[in-house]
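@channel sequence for tomorrow's demo:
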Amino acid sequence: MSHESHQPEECLRAGSQCRAPQDSQTACPSAPRPTGRSGAVQRPSENDTYADLRSGATRLLEINHTLPAPADALYLVLSEPPAEDWSVDTIRDVFRVNVIWRSPTGWGGDNAHAAFGSSG
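structure tokens (generated this afternoon):
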């Protein structure tokens, strides 16, 4: 199985080589940041429900588990706000995965500033 390598902004501008797995999500495992290492999975779909976020968070935790040095922070990156507002807090509290998304003014979601070093 081959993976296309690229460096999208959605992978937290971390400079790591990202891979697009067969399920079309983009994975950026353990990318170096000034405050530690972060991992991200980008979901290309729109109108993500809690079930979609839970699936993405699980995938991210699986990737993180396989790394020699686990990430200090994990991010599920969406193309727009999730369909259910409450799901962001639940994913963060249950899985310890931050959910961030593109907004008209930059990035939204808890800890988006930490992912990029600013709010946008």
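heads up for whoever presents: DSSP finds three helices and seven strands in the chain.
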